[in-house]
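Retro notes (design track)

What went well: tokenization of the new backbones is finally stable.
What didn't: we kept losing track of which sequence belonged to which structure.
Fix going forward: every design gets posted as structure first, then sequence, in one message. First example under the new rule, 86 residues:
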């Protein structure tokens, strides 16, 4: 499965910057990736934080690993948490 990776930086309510990738099927729109990012922010208690094309930028496409592919098939997207997400 080919996926699009969106490099995303969001400032949390406590001022710490979260860095994560939003990974979606290649054919999904940028707007859909942002919608998934907003769902993720809500799930981790950061609802209301800005997430626009300024914070979420297309990075590249790649082949999904089996784990990422399964999560995308189940929920439509995958979040790869990198910095400040916990």
């Amino acid at each position: 499965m080919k996926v699009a990776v969106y490099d995303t930086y969001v400032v949390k309510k406590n001022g710490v910057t979260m860095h994560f990738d939003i990974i979606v099927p290649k054919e999904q729109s940028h707007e859909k990736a942002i919608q998934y990012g907003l769902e993720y922010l809500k799930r981790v208690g950061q609802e209301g934080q800005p997430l626009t094309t300024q914070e979420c930028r297309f990075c590249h496409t790649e082949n999904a690993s089996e784990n990422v592919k399964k999560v995308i098939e189940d929920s439509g997207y995958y979040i790869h948490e990198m910095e400040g997400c916990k």
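Added context from the reviewer: The chain is about 30% helix and 40% strand.
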